Amino acid sequence: MPKKTVVKKIDLSKSVYSKIGYTKKFSEDLVEEMLSIIKNKLKTGHGVKIYGFGRFVLKDKKARTGRNPQTGKPLLIDARRVLKFYSSKSLRKVFKR
Asked: pTM for the whole thing?
């Protein structure tokens, strides 16, 4: 099994800096602004599609009855909004065996 790696915002900005050649500050601002745009679109209820990568979609889940696994007692799970990610066809091809 491959080792799990976490990619941080600073890693993205360093990659932009080294590959494109912008200043470090501009690269950090660019990554921060891009992520801010995505967050704001999702916050207002819009989906975000990045061609060649995938799309982020908000789904509303209805309230439902669940079960406490320790006690077995039923409990109400509130309605909520969840974020889902669907990878693009070209991204899935990268990981196809």
From this structure: 0.75
